[in-house]
Amino acid sequence: MKTSVNTYSFSRVQGKDGQRISLTEMVATAKDIGFDAIEFSGGLEVPGWFKGGREEFGRYMAGVCRENGLEVAAYLVGADLLSPGIVDKLKREAETAASLGAKTMRHDIAGNAPEGRTYYDLIPFFAEKINEVTEYAKTLGVRTCTENHGYFSQDSDRVVSLCKAVGNSNFGLLVDFGNFMCADQISVNAVREAAPYAVHVHAKDFKYVSKEESETAPPGYFNTRGGNHLMGCALGEGVVDVAACIEIMKDAGYDGYMTVEFEGPFGDPLSEIGKGLSFLKKCI
Questions:
Q1: How many domains would you assign to the chain?
Q2: DSSP letter for each residue of 154-204
Q3: Which CATH number belongs to the domain containing residue 147 in this structure?
Q4: Rounded to whole angstroms, how far apart are CA atoms 188 and 239?
Q5: Closest Cα partner for 204 from 180, 184, 224, 183?
Q6: Residues 63-80: pLDDT tens digits?
């Protein structure tokens, strides 16, 4: 397995101007910390200084990664498959992924179901949209996937049922160890169910406070779907059994990138990311 880091992990890292560091700086920093690859999250916004479009910027960033000796692990974008025009939008995102040299693109599913409908009601509709996107992405050499992410499309049973309904070898799951906890699942159990469908992995850890311990979320924590509380932290410092999850992935035959995603609101993010990488390497 190769190690990777998500650009979202650097969201609290500031440059000399007090603003978030640039993507170019994130690449150099990821290399300095010791990662093998980097994953671009949240789409690819073209900075004002760059004279060109998004695909040109994608090729530029691919060159920056090569110069730093980093591979591009994946490209992650938001999406709502219930929105008009979303298929064409995701096809354009697949073109951006290809310009970056990313072989994997993750997209979301939806934020919620229309009134009177359930996630399972909508699976045939979602599957049709996903297949159209992934068949186009396949022509570009890009494999698509979705993540257990965003409360609605988060439970292992939901994302596995969706993956089975899509039934396309070019589509799979981004398995995030920590995110299953947002749906109040035990990560090890959920990862075991989702692992056979994984094409990409996020190693993430959370600290946990139950609703019985505290009715309201403590500072820095957010609520799970069931009203418990989570806070992002460095790998190995929370309640997710990261080592066991990695062994499950190995047993399922996964040998791709293992991406560190740090969401903690406190501490020096670069130090926390570095600690996470050291812990991840021990687990691998």
A1: 1
A2: -SHHHHHHHHHHH--TTEEEEEETTGGGGGT--HHHHHHHHGGGEEEEEE-
A3: 3.20.20.150
A4: 11
A5: 180
A6: 999 999 999 999 999 999
